[in-house]
Design a protein that fits this description.
By secondary structure, the protein is mainly alpha-helical. Helix content is about 55%, strand content about 5%. Helix 7 crosses helix 10.
Length: about 200
Amino acid sequence: YPDMEVVGEAVDGQEAVEMARQTKPDLVLMDVHMPHMDGIEATQRIRDQVPAAKVIMLSVSDDDEDLLQALRSGAQGYLLKNVEPDQLVQMLRGATRGEAPISPSLAKKIINGYARRGRVQAVGVAAEELTPREREVLALVARGATNKEIAETLFISENTVKNHLRNIMDKLHSKNRAQAVAYALEHGVIEAAEN
């Protein structure tokens, strides 16, 4: 793909951190389970040392806890290795535009899991500040919708979607869309009816 260049490959998390520090990539594809240093810790270190780099997990693990730990560590997205190559490229391009790629099957599984467990809890003060429109945008992000898809669904411009997302991340003290979704799921910001 002419708009992408591979600047390095690493065999484990420790090497990935070193390589990221040296090459300062725009985007890092990271596995969750690796020798010497797992992808969760490597992601935290990369985000600390190369804050401009966006880290996307690409894993065989569809475990809910792996996803949530990855997002807490600063990963911007989480994709399963069975993703089609063309879909992977589109999601990576979306990540460079600030979107949070999460495999749709995994997003649905997690959302349904939270709904089944009735995890609608008392929402913190920051979450209470979200407007109804911001909650709608956040619910669509949680389903894996792109900015364009959100704009079309809500009949607003993509710039308005970006503004809502910026406000959401500020209010929820999130570094990126994926962390905002993780917070929303953990704290019941997105109610079962919205899923």
